[in-house]
Amino acid sequence: MPNANIVFGGSGASRTVTVTPAAGQSGTATITLTVTDANSGTGTDTFVLTVNATTNPTISDITNQTINEDANTGALAFTVGDAETPAASLTVSGSSSNTTLVPNANIVFGGSGASRTVTVTPAANQFGTATITVTVTDANSGTGTDTFLLTVNSVNDNPTISDVTDQSIALNSNTGALAFTIGDVETAAASLTMSGSSSNTTLVPNANIVFGGSGASRTVTVTPAAGQSGSATITLTVTDANSGTGTDTFVLTVNPGAPASVVVSAGSGQSATVTTTFGTALKALVRDAGNTPLPGVTVTFTAPAINATGTFAATGTNSQTATTDASGIATASAFTANATAGAYTVAATVSGVGSPANFSLTNVPGPVTNFAVTGYPDPTTAGPPTPSPSPPRTTRQHGPDLRRHRPLHQHRWRGHPARRQHPRQRHGHLLRHPADPRTPGPEGG
């Protein structure tokens, strides 16, 4: 204990003494305090000072670290210890030489006992260097320290863009100016560039995506192609000076107009044999004023009620309704001709549309499979012909008997093949010859 390390303070009757042992020294010393008056009289007091031997806690080395902007070091492991204080009772703390880059609160410790960790997280969008000091303290306020250098590399931050909600508009209109905001860490908002694209360029050509505004406040106006309806995904992209990008997407739905026309799609101009089904289904196409096919429209197919006509399988009658599909086409069920031959028209109509779609159809007769002829005997069943009664015989009084000189004729009996007849036979009757006993007389004998 050097005498110079015994320092007095206070005044008057109230005094103090501070004793500071030499650094690193331990042991005991008797301290004598002496008071002297004006007549050189003295008074003394003594006390024994015991300096206990102590050691500071220890901490292992943490190496220098390099990370990218907007990242962290992860959990860096180190160990602590002390001769007098259990490791579990040692406390650790940290500090940064650059609190803009690394706030002290962003130095976070973990682990327990002798095994500890430290995680250092720089402030968002910051880069540079900072010296990190890790301190371990024991129960006697002894400390141990370790330092390491943290380097944060600059990394380009992508620009940001606010959300544009999905839009639904009418046919042949546009979205109007839709507002959104953009920003970037490194690039001024005025220097950020905008671009747009469409997933359905038939509905929305890319050139029809137009930007407005300036700085951080921007707008986009989307104009679909004339007469087009449907949906498209619109992608807005903001690009910074370092080619970093940010995107936002929204769905634009263009609602179709009201039905304006209905036309034949398939099935007109065909024919079918009576009582058979037509080969091609009747199909009608419905479109709006912009010539866009319309789904979900009800179409009524109607055939004539009488004469040549037909029936639909879906209803069993001359009429049925069908709904247009995604292509705007309504398809009727199978159509069967009735038993009457002839040409006719089936009309497809849509409510609110003035002119129907007309299908020209024809029922054609079938082949003849059975017929009968009246007034003639059936040659397959008739027997020999029955002679008609002979007319009364007339006797000439003068001149030759002309019956002997009649020319030979050929006759065909009804229902029988032709054959040559006897010269005395005419019209199914034998002419009497006096010498022929087989010839019946006028009395039928």
* Gyration radius, rounded: 61 Å
Major sheet description: 5 strands, mixed
Mean pLDDT score:
87
Coarse structural class? mainly beta
Helix content class: under 10%
Which strand order spans the largest sheet, edge to edge or round the barrel?
A: 22-30-29-24-26
Specify the number of helices. Answer: 0
Number of strands: 34
Overall morphology? rod-shaped
Low-confidence stretches: 394-437, 441-445
Protein model, in words:
The protein has 445 residues and is mainly β. Helix content is 0%, strand content 44%. It has no helices and 34 strands. It has a 5-stranded mixed β-sheet, with no helix packed on it. It has a 4-stranded antiparallel β-sheet with strand order 5-7-10-9, with no helix packed on it. Residues 394-437 and 441-445 have low confidence and may be disordered.
